[in-house]
Structures are given as structure tokens and as C-alpha cells.
Design goal:
It is a single chain. This protein is α+β, with helices and mostly antiparallel strands and about 400 residues long. Among the domains are: about 100 residues, Helix Hairpins; about 120 residues, Sandwich (HSP40/DNAj peptide-binding domain). It is built from twelve helices and 15 strands. It has a four-stranded mixed sheet with strand order 10-11-15-14. Helix 2 runs antiparallel to helix 3. The radius of gyration is 32 Å and the shape is elongated. About 10% of the residues have low confidence.
Length: about 400
């Protein structure tokens, strides 16, 4: 059975942003949640289907491959191996619903979540998660064409070595919160003529961590982390574009008191090139040639992103003619092909001539071969020119 379109599953457009994507996934997950649909296999499958769609579309690289190649580009699911257990979905996407299953939106709706409650307590005792970081990485077209590994220095919160991230002074330890009894959450029950209502909020005493620190580490003041500088390696694949970003999992700010670290998002920026102009995977080069080379033909040496190359200029080449050098452009991201290098020929006209040179040109100008005739076409009316332009911007 063919897989349904991921955008169709979540009911969003292909231009949907991150916020719209999360809202759509929340809506689908709430609708097909197993607690709302007990013993309903169809609802369970749709719940898994929504999770798979979100797993792919929430990852920029997987989403790009899916947009370009559909399900066939996912390599058996774009590294998504499918969920056979509903708890796998809870553990992977609990944060989307505000604090994890067992302490977030699902507990408010369904009053607990059964066996998943223990997972919430475990996460609560880990402290507050660290925030994500974003940095911009400037690359030349040559680096983009070949791929590159960069070392970047970042300032971030790092785990305190004195207390190993616990926030407690060496020799002491954290204690269970007396208010929430280690759950990290407080449950409030109210009654009305409509029945009983249960609301769950993070414990304000321990900030939802389930444990408190009485004797603080002097180096981090109980935070479990300190400011520092780190060097991170990032491998940039060939073919990236301006605005693409590479997520480095766990390389963001360290969490408080043993909380999980955030991610580091490396955003790609292209440096302007002095010679080439990029259009998708193709690159454009403007080439100046002398009148004699254009008229008689020549072979010239020109730059490419991978070094020098020889290019043949046919006799009678018109100014504005575009010559194509196959697969001399930018490699397709995660693909096996590459764009082309398009060379636009511009015939150079000298601005300073000696008297003798002017006399020679006047003699040549009298020849009928040096004047256009009715029916002659310039490079700009040549079909190959417009074909190249269409391919360039398509």
C-alpha cells in the first residue's frame, strides 16, 4: 500500500513553518491518542502515521529530501525506522506537548497516562534542559562545491566539573522535593457542577525537577553549569545553500543541574565570489575575449570551482553567447550529479587605438564580411541562448 503524503497527513501546506507544523501535529496526536481511542487499531495507526510525518518534516534535511524526491528519497523512511510501540512516540515527541507525556498536555486531558508517568519523573529528576544555540558559518563557493570540515569556537554553558552537573557542593547531594515528592509536578483537583477537573503544573519549589539543592556548589552557585568556550567540529556536505542549517545534537548549552543539553544549529552563509555567480547548482562566469579570438576561434584557460580548465571558443562566436561546461558547477546536495558552469562570452572592444590600428580597421570595415546582413542573428536571438537562460533560472 502506497504511503500517504506527509503534508496531507498533517493537513498543512508545503510552505508551512515550524509553528504551523507543531500545531498540526498536536492536533492530529490529540485526535488519535490511544487514551481517547482505546482498542482502536485504526486510530493507533494514524497516531503512528502522524508521528512519522512530523519526524520527517521537522528535520530540515529530511524535509528537503522528501520535498525533492518524495518517499523514494527517504532511504527506507529517511532514517525513520517506524514506530512499533506507542511509547516510542511518547519518548521521542513528548516535548512537543509541553513538558513530556505524564506531565504535560496529555495528562491534563486524560488524567495521568498510566505507565508513562514514571518516564516523567525520570525526566524531572534530570534538571532543566539547556537551550539551543545558533551560529552562522560563512563558506566560499569552493568550499560549498567540495564540502568541508570546519572547527568553530563557541561560547556556551558547560557542565560544571566540580559537581559533575548536580549543582550540589562536593560531598553533598540533592534531596527529593518535599512538595511534589520527586514527581516534579503538582496536581490540583477542583470540583464543580460539571464534575471533577484535574490540572497539573510544574512544581514551583523545585522548578519541575523533582529534587532540590540545599548546599550549593561554590563554582557554579548551584546551577550545575558554568560559562565556557568550546571548539566544535562541523562537517559540511557539498552542495549546501544559503540558509541551510546543520543541527549538531547535544552541542548547545548544558542543562541546569544535570538537565540534557540543547542543540547547536550551524546556519550556512555564502560569501560573495569575485568571479562566479551562483544560480541553484549552476554557476555563471562572465568571460572577456578579444575580437580576434571571437572571430577566428581560440582555446582559452578559465577558472572553475575545482581549478583551471580549457575552453574552446568557436570561430564567429557572438558577444553574449553562453557556453556550457557540464558538471563543473555545484554538486547536488546528497546526490551524485552536479550543476554546470555557464560561461557568458563578452567580446571586448578596445577603447584606445593608434592611428595605424584605426587605418587597418577602416580598411577591414569596407569588407562585406564586417557588416551584418539582413537575416543575420545575434547571440541574443539564438535559441541556444534562451534555452541556457531558461535552464539557468528553472
Amino acid at each position: 500500500m502506497a504511503k500517504r503524503d506527509y503534508y496531507e497527513i498533517l493537513g498543512i501546506s508545503r510552505q508551512a513553518g515550524e509553528d504551523d507544523l507543531k500545531k498540526a501535529y498536536r492536533k492530529a496526536a490529540m485526535k488519535y491518542h490511544p487514551d481517547r481511542n482505546p482498542d482502536n487499531k485504526e486510530a493507533e495507526e494514524k497516531f503512528k502515521e502522524a508521528a512519522e510525518a512530523y519526524e520527517v518534516l521537522s528535520d530540515p534535511e529530511k524535509r528537503r529530501r522528501y520535498d525533492q524526491y518524495g518517499h523514494s528519497g527517504m532511504r527506507a523512511g529517511a532514517d525513520f525506522h517506524g514506530y512499533t510501540d506507542i511509547n516510542d512516540i511518547f519518548s521521542n515527541f513528548g516535548d512537543i506537548f509541553g513538558g513530556g507525556f505524564g506531565g504535560g498536555i496529555f495528562d491534563e486531558m486524560f488524567g495521568g497516562g498510566g505507565g508513562r508517568k514514571g518516564g516523567a519523573r525520570q525526566r524531572a529528576s534530570q534538571g532543566t534542559a539547556g537551550s539551543d544555540l545558533k551560529i552562522r558559518l560563512k563558506l566560499t563557493l569552493e568550499e560549498i562545491a567540495s564540502g568541508v570540515e570546519k572547527k568553530i569556537k563557541i561560547k556556551r554553558w558547560k557542565t560544571c566539573q566540580s559537581c559533575s552537573g548536580s549543582g550540589a557542593r562536593k560531598g553533598s547531594s540533592r534531596t527529593v522535593c518535599s512538595v511534589c515528592k520527586g514527581a516534579g509536578e503538582v496536581r490540583h483537583v477542583s470540583r464543580s457542577v460539571f464534575g471533577q477537573f484535574v490540572s497539573i503544573t510544574a512544581c514551583s519549589t523545585c522548578n519541575g525537577e523533582g529534587q532540590i539543592v540545599k548546599d550549593h556548589c561554590p563554582d557554579c552557585s548551584g546551577e550545575g553549569r558554568v560559562q565556557g568556550e568550546s571548539t566544535v567540529k562541523v562537517s559540511v556536505p557539498a552542495g549546501v545553500s544559503e540558509g541551510n542549517y546543520i543541527p549538531l545534537r547535544g552541542q548547545g548549552n548544558a542543562g541546569q543541574r544535570g538537565g540534557p543539553p540543547g542543540d547547536l544549529l550551524v546556519i550556512i552563509e555564502e560569501e560573495p565570489h569575485p568571479v562566479f555567480t551562483r544560480h541553484g547548482d549552476d554557476v555563471m562566469l562572465d568571460l572577456l575575449v578579444g575580437f580576434s579570438d571571437a572571430a577566428l576561434g581560440a582555446e582559452v584557460e578559465i577558472p572553475t570551482l575545482s581549478g583551471k580548465a580549457r575552453l574552446k571558443i568557436d570561430a564567429g562566436t557572438q558577444s553574449g553567447r553562453i557556453l556550457r561546461m557540464r558538471e563543473k558547477g555545484i554538486p547536488t546536495l546528497n546526490g551524485r550529479s552536479a550543476g554546470d558552469q555557464l560561461v557568458r562570452v563578452n567580446v571586448w572592444v578596445p577603447t584606445k587605438l593608434s592611428r595605424e590600428e584605426k587605418d587597418q580597421i577602416r580598411v577591414l570595415a569596407k569588407s562585406e564580411n564586417f557588416s551584418p546582413k539582413p537575416g543575420d542573428k545575434s547571440a541574443h536571438s539564438d535559441k541556444s541562448f534562451f534555452s541556457a537562460i531558461r535552464n539557468l533560472f528553472s
